[in-house]
Every structure is written in structure tokens, then in C-alpha cells.
Design goal:
heterodimer; A: mainly alpha; two-stranded antiparallel sheet; two-stranded antiparallel ribbon; 23 helices; about 70% helix; B: mainly alpha; 12 helices; about 0% strand
């Protein structure tokens, strides 16, 4: 366990070095990235070996401020969360070497690296924390450091606003967490996590729900997700990759951890998590489909994947309350594996989006097109990531979903309500899968294929080699994990080793299925190779012509006639209309000789609209009526303080 | 050995059966119709040709037909045609197979979008939409079958202790499933009333418009894939419909292919006597089987313990 702390120190040292070397731009980047990657490497090796060696849970604590104690503990779940946490940052850092190329902003870049280091270390501390004080401390450091990462381009007003929105959601979420902790403390009179189980049954549900809201605002469950589609486009792409790939998973970690610690008997917890997961998943992907900004789309797709992970966790929890060991086991394991997979392919996609933004200077799908030929590496790796995130074999996304399906199908033989829940979970997974296919064919098909829709898209060239290399590595990882899934499934199984209820579940039969699954994928790949070969043979010595696309008789096609992202998604969006309001602005035609006419459509987030109307507006009105308190008169302010002290001293 | 023979036969006969549909349609129209072997001739003709590629396209366009064809072929590899043990099978194969179909769709859509043609984009958008709706029904059916047989594999659906068959104790439930699966078949294979393969206007097509730019062997692969897919769905249906299990594998196969033929004939009849729905009616039509399957699954709460 000490090795893990060494790795934190190395990572933080890397961050501090960035500040010290800020004047020498390239040297600073190289040194920082090398040192931090080294730290992550140490952490990764150590946590992997601890996880695989079946080491028992280790604990460590220090006294802090004489009164509190900082306690850290690693069990298998913590170790499993540490793996993506240490694996993704080095890749993102390597990518940032060429992504953060602006010499003018060197101080800012250095500060960015510094907060990056703090973010990674604090996330690791969140995972290892074993009492409330430690957890809250690490959680707050994580939220604050990521806030500074989001507002990297603070001169742009929209980015500042996105940052503030994130800040509000992070702090409001933390407030809920503290409320839950306070309730816990009032029952147990101890900061220690281990004491949670002794809370009376009645209080457990309430505590869980409050904590669920708190963690959910970090994870991005519907309707607490609205900061994601704002913050991700604002942040630099490698930061989005880390935040979406790793940081929002801390919310999932919190939900899972508090569920295990409370060990509540009520079935409502599992049902709430499962239903939230379904809503989050389906609406997340529908909104993703509706967005034309690639990074916004990816942010909504993160919401969708959080939904899938929650479905997995929910299946597991329902399995526990139904005493169905197989269902619980595969639900939890599927959630873990999908979480791991998502951290890889989502980072890959964000990096691809970053490369597109860097080269084509726009991230609007309706202005892109034809990038596959101009950016072959980015295009191909993005395609791989898209197949993976749609949950399609032979890439890794399928494997996680396969486990969740497996768990859900084991719930089919339950009775009554949990049977219905299992059905709904399976159907919503299928619908999410179908919609994700639609969503990512849209991105790949419209941004990367076809003809460029604008001049700047036509002028785009391939991104720098280092960025391409990172994306190739990640795409290859997605493929390997999809074709040879067994080691990774074993890893996920090792990750849930310390979950009491599922411990000792016999996995041999399932691992045999996994081997056959990977065989089936190999058969598919072999057939694919065979048919491609056949195709080659059929085309040998033939005349291959080239011409323009058949326009069904129309001879003057232009690139503007292509289908756009908006038109591609229109029909599906229309189907989900009550939940996805479409805004249409039409200037109309009023005179005989009409002037400039405009037509604009867009999709607003139903959660955002409701916050605006039901929360923000009444709140602002109320606060406006209290404005007289702030008058700028210093004597009266002093009077406020005196009155407050008197009231506190005398009456409390 | 039996499995290999059965698979080879299925692959060979797949192009023949759609000609039956054309014959039926011709009969209804009072015409003679093309010869039964028409699809083999088409195949040979297409294989001999070269291709013209649009300058807009990339490697994805060339990958589309290959992936589409192979994913459909995979279905036949894992399906117990005529109750004969398939070449491969394992617990959970239905999940990966239907997801492979999704992969085929993914690349077909991408190949269509790769041409930069507005018509193909339109077809792709519709395909993406309707298939998400059909997917829910397919998984509904899988849930029901898991409830009855406790299995997630095509081979185990139709063999073992709890067999899915009209003559079993759950036969009544299957009637609704058959209707649902029939509608899914029409949707997934772009048949009337969802899509009209013989329509004359690109704006009203779904599948046909997506492959406008493919030619030569590429087009042949797409056609092959489509025939395999249709054969898979009708084989699935006929395994549900056919209640008998004879001792002799040969007789069994004969009966099985007779039922398959019958299903193709009904497709031809449906196409002759109905028109394609208006586009905005299609989602409702595609959702109908989901309602049916969901209803049936709820029924099992009491029937299957």
C-alpha cells in the first residue's frame, strides 16, 4: 500500500515541476508528462498486482489536526477503480504533449498540468478513503481541481459559464453528501465507514437516497447531468477524456461504496438505481442523437453509459435483495467491466473529437464531412471507438453489456415486480444499443464520411503523430479486449471479490461461455477475412471505374445537398418528442417581396428548462426581494454581526 | 457432418427462395414472372462485372457489403436449421448474433452515408430508426424464450427438455409470438408494408436506396446477405410453426423447408394484396409486435413458474 502513496507523491511532484519549469515550455511539458506517467505507472502496476494476488484489504491511517484521522483502505473494489484511474491519464498526458501546443499560454498550460496532477491524486484518494473526513476532503479537492481544468480557456464567456455551472453542481452535490454523512454521524457517532452498517434500517433508505443525489450529480444521472454537456465542450479535449472517462466514475464508485457499506435490506434501493439507470440511459442517448456538437454529443453519450453502468449495478442490487446470486454477480461484474471499457473508448472518442477540433477548427457535425480521407488515423480510430461504444462486437463495448444482459436474464425467473424490472432492463439495454448505433453512425457517417460541407473541413489535415499514436493504442486496446475478453472479465470478477453476497460464486461455467464467445468472434473475423479475400479475387483484373455519386438523375449535386446531422436524427427525435422538446424558430414571410428569412431548429434539454422555470426563476425572485439586506452601509453590517453573535450565544 | 450438409444446403437454397416471392407476386398480377433460378443468374452476372465507385467514398463503402454479408451468414451458422444441431452454439449466442446483425447494420448505414448522396442519407436515417424499434421486439422474444426454456441459445430453444413448439404447453403463447416475429421479419428484411423493394421512386425506399451506389460483386454480396437474413428469419418462424418432430432427419428437413417455402409464399401474398404504409405509419406498425410480445411475457408470470 505504501507503493501507492509513493505513486501519488510522484504524480504530485510532476504537477509541481510543471509550475517550476513554466518558462521553458517544451521542457516543462516533457518533464511533467514523463514524471506523472511514471507515477501512474507505479500505481497501475501496484494496484494490478494487489488485485490479482488476492491480497487482503490493507489499511493505513494518520492523525490530522489532532482531532481527525485520515484513514485509507484498499479492498478489491477500490483497486479495480484505481486501474482505469492510473491507465488513462498517461495516455491523455501523452496526447496533450502535442495538443497543448500554444506557447503563448505556457503559464496556463503549466497550471493546467498542476491541477491535472492534483485531480489524479485526489481521485485515487477518494477511492481509498475509509472515513468520512478523508472522503469529503478528497472529494472536494477533486471537484475543485477539475473546476480549474474546465475553465482553461477562461477568456471565452461560454467556458466560464460552463465552469460555474459545473462548480454549482459539484458543490450542491457535495452538500447532499455532507447531509448524508451528517445523518450517518448522528446515528453512529463515528466517522468510520465501517460503522455505517449499524445504522437502523429505517434511516438507511433516506441516507442512501440523499447520497445517491449527491453522487449522481457527479456521475451525471438524469436530471442532474446538465453540467456535462456544457463542461465537456469547454474543457480541453484530453481533460474531457479524463473527466468523462474517469472522474464521473467516482460518482458511480460512491454509489456502489455507500450501498455496500449500508448493507440495507430494503429492495427499494436496487429498484431506484435500476430505474434511474434506464431513464438516464435512454434519454442520454436520445439527447446525444439530437446534438450536432461532437463534444456535446459525447458528453450526452457519457450520460447514456452512466445509465448502462447503473442498470448493471441496479441488476446486481435487485439480485441481492432477491437472493439471486447469479443475477447479483453478473450485474455487478458487468457494471465494473462496462465502466472500465467506457473509460477507454470514451477517452479515445474525446481525443478524436479534439483532433477534429484542432484540425478543422469546428466541432459542429453539420459543418464537417469527408474527414476519413483527410485524417485517416483519427478517422479509423474514431470508427473503432464508435463501434465499441455502440456495444457491437468484435470491440470491447459488447463484452460489458453481455455481462449485464447475462445478469438481467438471470432475473427473468424472479417473480412479480423484479421480473418486470428485469424485462424493462433488458429492453432498455436493447433500445439504448439501437439508438447508440444510430447516434454513432451519425457522427462517423456525417463528420468523417461523405464530402466536406465547409471550406475549413476540406482543408483539414491529419493530427500530429503523437495524438494519432495514442488513439491507435486505445483503439487497439478496444479490439483486443473485445476479441480476447477473458483476462478482463477475470479482472472484473476480481474487482467484486470483496462484495459479501456474491463472494464464492462459481465462475467456471461462465468462463467457458466466454471462451466460446471469443471463439464466435474469431469465427466472425475469420469469415470476414475470407469474404474480403473472395471479394479481392472477384475484383482481380476487373475494370474499376470511378465517378460521381449517382444523384438519381440529378446532374448538379452540391455538398450542401448531403444529409445533415439534424436531418438524420429528426425522425427519431420526433418519436421521443415529449421528453425531447424541439425548438423551431421561423422568421416567417410577411410581405409580398420577402426579405431575409431564417429557420432554426435545436433541441433543448428538458431538465434544463425545468430547472430554469421551476427552480432558478422563483429562487431569483425570492432573493431579489431580500436585496435590501445588502445596502453597503458598514455600520449596519457590524450590527448584523453583533446581533448574530448575541443570538448564537444566548439562544443556542 | 449433418450440420455441415444442412448449412451448405441452406446457403445454396437461400437465393432460390426469394424467387418464390417474385413468382407469387407475378401470379397475383396475372403475369408469368421471372424463372425460379433468376437469382442465381443475377449472382453470376454481378460476379462477372467490375464496379464503379463514387469519388466521395472511402474504404468504409467497400467494407459495408462484406460485413453485411458475413453477419447474416453468422446467423445461419448458429441456427439449428430443420432442428439439426448447428455448427456452433453456446449459451448466450443469441445475444452476440443479434448484436452482430447490429454491426452489419452499422456498416450498411455508414456505407450509405459515405456516398454523400441525400437519398442514401434518407434511407440510412430510416433504417437506423426502424431497426431500433424492431430490436426491442427481438429482445422481448428472447426474454420470453428464456422464461420458457431457461436458455439463451438457438440450438437449446429447439432441443432439450423444454422445447419451444406450438404443440408444447406454451403453444398458445407462441401464436402471438409468431405474429410478432413475422412483422419483425418484414421490417428487418425491408418488405412490404414497411418498405417496398420494387418501388420506382428513391424517396420512398429504405433499403434499396441505401445500396444505390453499389455495383458488381459488392452488390452481389449485399444481395447474398439479404437472402441469408431472410432465410434466417423464416427459418426461425418455421421452427416455431412446425409442431412435429420426425425421426428421420431427411423427412424433418423436407417438412421444414416446406414450411419455409410457405412463409415465403405468404410474404409474396402480403406484398401482392397490401400497399406500403405511409412513412409516419411505419413506427406504429413496427411497435405493434413489441406490444404483443410484452403482453405475452406478462402472461407468463402466471403460466410459467
Amino acid at each position: 500500500m505504501d507503493t501507492l502513496f509513493v505513486s501519488f507523491v510522484v504524480i504530485l511532484a510532476g504537477g509541481v515541476m510543471a509550475l517550476l519549469l513554466a518558462r521553458r515550455f517544451n521542457l516543462m511539458k516533457l518533464v511533467t508528462v514523463a514524471v506523472m506517467s511514471c507515477g501512474c505507472g507505479i500505481g497501475l502496476v501496484k494496484s494490478l498486482s494487489l488485485l490479482l494476488s488476492q491480497a487482503p484489504t490493507a489499511e493505513k491511517s494518520w492523525a490530522w489536526l489532532h482531532f481527525f484521522e485520515l484513514t485509507f483502505k484498499v479492498d478489491s473494489i477500490a483497486l479495480f477503480f484505481l486501474i482505469p484511474l492510473f491507465a488513462v491519464p498517461p495516455l491523455a498526458l501523452f496526447y496533450s504533449l502535442q495538443y497543448m501546443a500554444d506557447q503563448q499560454k505556457r503559464v496556463r498550460v503549466a497550471v493546467n498540468y498542476f491541477f491535472f496532477a492534483i485531480l489524479v491524486a485526489s481521485m485515487a484518494l477518494v477511492v481509498m478513503a475509509a472515513n468520512m473526513i478523508t472522503f469529503a476532503l478528497a472529494w472536494e479537492i477533486m471537484s475543485l481541481s477539475s473546476f480549474f481544468l474546465v475553465v482553461f480557456d477562461y477568456q471565452v464567456k461560454a467556458n466560464r459559464q460552463a465552469g460555474y455551472l459545473y462548480f454549482i453542481f459539484a458543490q450542491a452535490g457535495a452538500m447532499f453528501l455532507f447531509a448524508a454523512f451528517a445523518l450517518l454521524y448522528s446515528h453512529t457517532a463515528s466517522f468510520d465507514f465501517a460503522a455505517f452498517a449499524s445504522v437502523p434500517e429505517k434511516a438507511k433508505l433516506l441516507i442512501f437516497l440523499i447520497a445517491f443525489i449527491g453522487f449522481g450529480s457527479k456521475a451525471g444521472i438524469f436530471p442532474l447531468h446538465i453540467w456535462l454537456p456544457k463542461a465537456h465542450p469547454a474543457a480541453p479535449s484530453h481533460i474531457s477524456a479524463i473527466m468523462s472517462g474517469v472522474m464521473i466514475k467516482m460518482g458511480i464508485y460512491g454509489i456502489f461504496r455507500i450501498y455496500l457499506l449500508l448493507d440495507a435490506a430494503t429492495p427499494i434501493i436496487g429498484q431506484v438505481v435500476l430505474v434511474t439507470g434506464m431513464i438516464t440511459g435512454v434519454l442520454g442517448v436520445v439527447y446525444a442523437l439530437a446534438k450536432q456538437d461532437i463534444k456535446q454529443l459525447l458528453a450526452y453519450s457519457s450520460v447514456e453509459n452512466i445509465g448502462i453502468i447503473l442498470i448493471g449495478l441496479g441488476i446486481g442490487m435487485v439480485g441481492v435483495s432477491e437472493q439471486n446470486q447469479a443475477m447479483a454477480f453478473f450485474g455487478f461484474a458487468g457494471a465494473m467491466l462496462h465502466l472500465f471499457n467506457h473509460s477507454i473508448f470514451k477517452s479515445l472518442l474525446f481525443m478524436g473529437a479534439g483532433a477534429v477540433l484542432h484540425q478543422a477548427k469546428t466541432k459542429n457535425i453539420d459543418q464537417l464531412g469527408g474527414l476519413m480521407k483527410r485524417m485517416p488515423i483519427t478517422g479509423r480510430t474514431f470508427l473503432a471507438g464508435s463501434v465499441a461504444i455502440s456495444g457491437l462486437p468484435p470491440f470491447c463495448g459488447f463484452i460489458g453489456e453481455f455481462l449485464i444482459y447475462y445478469g438481467a436474464f438471470h432475473g427473468i425467473n424472479n417473480q412479480r415486480f423484479s421480473f418486470i424490472l428485469a424485462i424493462l432492463a433488458i429492453v432498455s439495454l436493447a433500445v439504448i444499443g439501437g439508438l447508440a448505433t444510430a447516434c454513432f453512425t451519425k457522427v462517423v457517417g456525417l463528420a468523417f464520411l461523405g464530402e466536406p460541407r465547409t471550406e475549413q473541413a476540406a482543408r483539414a489535415t491529419e493530427a500530429a503523430w503523437g495524438m494519432g499514436l495514442v488513439m491507435i493504442v486505445m483503439a487497439a486496446a478496444c479490439l483486443v479486449m473485445g476479441v480476447v475478453p477473458e483476462p478482463f472479465i477475470r479482472l472484473a470478477f476480481a474487482g467484486i471479490r470483496d462484495v459479501g453476497f456474491t463472494a464464492g460464486y462459481d465462475t467456471q461455467a461462465f468462463l467457458a461461455v466466454v471462451r466460446q464467445l471469443s471463439q464466435a468472434i474469431l469465427i466472425f473475423l475469420a469469415l470476414l477475412a475470407l469474404v474480403s479475400l473472395l471479394r479481392k479475387v472477384l475484383y482481380r483484373g476487373k475494370e474499376i471505374g470511378s465517378g460521381s455519386t449517382w444523384g438519381c438523375g440529378f446532374t448538379q449535386p452540391t455538398v450542401r445537398m448531403q444529409y445533415t446531422g439534424t436531418s438524420y436524427a429528426a425522425e427519431i427525435i420526433d418519436f421521443y418528442r415529449p421528453f425531447v422538446p424541439v425548438r423551431r424558430l421561423y422568421s416567417g414571410i410577411s410581405r409580398i417581396f420577402p426579405g431575409k428569412t431564417t429557420w432554426e431548429t435545436g433541441v433543448d434539454d428538458v431538465a434544463e428548462i425545468n430547472y430554469m422555470q421551476r427552480l432558478i426563476k422563483p429562487l431569483l425572485q425570492f432573493l431579489n426581494s431580500l436585496r435590501w439586506i445588502q445596502h453597503g452601509n458598514i455600520q449596519l453590517y457590524i450590527a448584523y454581526i453583533i446581533v448574530a453573535i448575541i443570538v448564537l450565544l444566548l439562544f443556542l | 457432418m449433418e450440420s455441415i450438409l444442412s448449412l451448405c444446403f441452406a446457403i445454396l437454397i437461400a437465393p432460390l427462395l426469394p424467387a418464390v416471392i417474385q413468382k407469387v407476386k407475378a401470379f397475383f398480377a396475372g403475369k408469368q414472372g421471372p424463372p425460379l433460378l433468376i437469382n442465381y443468374y443475377t449472382m453470376i452476372k454481378l460476379f462477372r462485372k467490375g464496379s464503379v465507385y463514387s469519388t466521395s467514398t472511402s474504404f468504409v463503402f467497400r467494407m459495408g457489403p462484406v460485413v453485411g454479408c458475413v453477419t447474416s451468414l453468422m446467423m445461419l451458422l448458429f441456427f439449428p436449421l430443420a432442428g439439426i444441431k448447428p455448427l456452433f452454439s453456446f449459451h448466450g449466442d443469441v445475444l452476440i448474433l443479434f448484436y452482430l446483425m447490429g454491426l452489419g447494420r452499422f456498416f450498411t448505414i455508414l456505407a450509405a452515408l459515405d456516398t454523400a448522396s441525400p437519398f442514401e442519407g434518407m434511407g440510412a436515417a430510416r433504417e437506423a430508426f426502424f431497426s431500433t424499434l424492431a430490436e426491442a421486439t427481438v429482445f422481448g422474444i428472447l426474454i420470453l424464450f428464456f422464461r420458457i426454456t431457461g436458455s439463451l441459445s438457438f440450438a437449446e430453444f429447439f432441443s432439450g427438455r423444454h422445447v419451444i413448439s406450438l404443440s408444447s404447453e406454451h403453444g398458445a403463447l407462441l401464436l402471438l409470438v409468431i405474429v410478432a416475429l413475422y412483422i419483425v421479419m418484414l421490417t428487418e428484411n425491408s418488405r412490404v408494408p414497411v418498405d417496398d423493394p420494387a418501388t420506382h421512386l428513391e424517396l420512398t425506399m429504405i433499403h434499396e436506396v441505401m445500396i444505390l451506389d453499389h455495383s458488381g460483386p459488392d452488390l452481389a454480396l449485399i444481395e447474398l446477405g439479404a437472402w441469408f437474413k431472410l432465410l434466417f428469419y423464416s427459418a426461425f418462424l418455421s421452427m416455431l410453426i412446425e409442431p412435429f418432430h420426425l425421426e428421420s432427419a431427411l423427412l424433418n428437413s423436407l417438412l421444414f423447408y416446406a414450411v419455409v417455402c410457405f412463409i415465403y409464399i405468404t410474404i409474396g401474398m402480403v406484398e401482392s394484396i397490401t400497399a406500403r404504409y405511409k412513412m409516419n405509419m411505419v413506427p406504429k406498425f413496427v411497435l405493434t409486435p413489441f406490444a404483443l410480445v410484452f403482453f405475452v411475457t406478462i402472461l407468463t408470470m402466471e403460466l410459467v413458474k
